[in-house]
Amino acid sequence: MIPVNEPVIGSRERELVLACLDTGWISSDGPFVAQFEQRFAREVGRKHAIAVMNGSAALDAAVAALELSPGDEVVMPTFTIISCVTAILRAGAVPVPVDCDPVTWNATPDAIMAAVTPRTRAIMAVHIYGLPVDMDPILSFARERSIAVIEDAAEAHGLSYRGRPCGSLGDISTFSFYPNKHVTTGEGGMIVTDSDVLAGRCRSLRNLGFNPERRFVHDALGWNLRMTNLQAALGLGQLERLGESIAKKRAMGRRYRELLQDDNRLQLPAERSTGAENVYWVFGMVLNDSLPFDAREMMRRLSDRGIGTRTFFWGMHEQPVLRRMKMFETVSLPVAERLARRGFYIPSGLALTEAQMIEVAAAVKDALN
Ligand SMILES: *Cc1c(COP(=O)(O)O)cnc(C)c1O
């Protein structure tokens, strides 16, 4: 089976992780955590970086740091991971999902702006599958109305928008280091911001609200979201190779495109969008409506041929758990609904070889018949 995602762990990561074991620095108190934060902040051009235990926790803390009030609305894409909704709900706010663009799969500025009401306190922009949200119209719109922008850059390591790194665009931005991301720490996440206030709140939320001067005296109710020195060691090694990883992903994207572009029964990822060139976090595709089967059937066929795949996101407005909570009952977002049923992605991990890509592409074409 060709796995849908397999990370590459280099000798540098091995060396740094072993240094943790040899020195006994395995908790979050070890020196690599601060080094990783500083290096990461520099990479995305931000003043603060706060390392946490995963990308979902980064979203939880980032949204909590905005100190929203009950009933405040947060506009977000429906086509994303559930972590976006859970962070908003746990902050006591109301998620307002919007549809996405059929070509870039990202929420559009028009859809986001149309969903804003006088109760909107934040917009969550999520960069999907390797292309960024068209941020500038959203940023200027939000600034005029004092609406905060949360940027979920979990899938956008090494991606830039109009020459600015993703992760540098929101008032507060988050990343994930899950093994399928371009930089992995096994499990891990990062919050970045230029705001001293938001950074201070996130550090406190990460560490149980401990008062920095008087331990066991608490100024806030936080969580334990700390990243370990072991994870940071992995991340430091990975970060040194980020440029190389992105170049490899782009080359893989181009190669898959060459291998698959002559089949008009498939919609391939867009090569570019406003101000950006795809980094192909994953290589997604959407089955043409003329095909008499859906993505689940296609994935079953590919599995029979030894190819691992994954479905596209299932829109938040269609989630059974949220519908049971009486949310989004009358919401219909047709582009995301179609993508959920007809979209899937093929193996796109950094460990994938040229021979495997040829095998995957041949299996895809065969499975369409
Ligand atoms: C991966 C991902 C996350 C969550 O990250 P975890 O580290 O798995 O918790 C959040 N948002 C998006 C868009 C993601 O792709």
Percentage of residues assigned to helices: 25-40%
List how many beta strands DSSP finds.
15
Ends apart, CA distance between termini = 21 Å
Q: Can you identify the CATH superfamily of the largest domain?
A: Type I PLP-dependent aspartate aminotransferase-like (Major domain)
Return the string of H and E elements. Answer: HHEHEHEHEHEEEEEHHHEEEEHEHHEH
Structure, described:
The model has no long low-confidence stretch (mean pLDDT 97). With 369 residues, the protein is α/β, with parallel strands linked by helices. Helix 2 (31-44) packs parallel to helix 8 and helix 3 (55-65) packs parallel to helix 4. It has helices at 11-23, 31-44, 55-65, 82-90, 109-114, 135-144, 196-206, 229-240, 242-260, 295-304, 320-324, 334-342, 354-367; strands at residues 48-52, 73-77, 94-98, 120-126, 148-152, 160-161, 164-165, 172-176, 189-193, 266-267, 272-273, 276-277, 283-287, 310-311, 343-346. The protein has 2 domains: 11-240, 3-Layer(aba) Sandwich (Aspartate Aminotransferase, domain 2); 242-368, Aspartate Aminotransferase, domain 1 (Alpha-Beta Complex). The protein has 13 helices and 15 strands. A 7-stranded mixed beta sheet has the order 1-9-8-5-4-2-3, with helices on both faces. A 4-stranded antiparallel beta sheet has the order 10-13-15-14. Residues 54-56, 80-81, 83, 126, 152, 154-155, 176, 178, 189 line the site of pyridoxal-5'-phosphate.
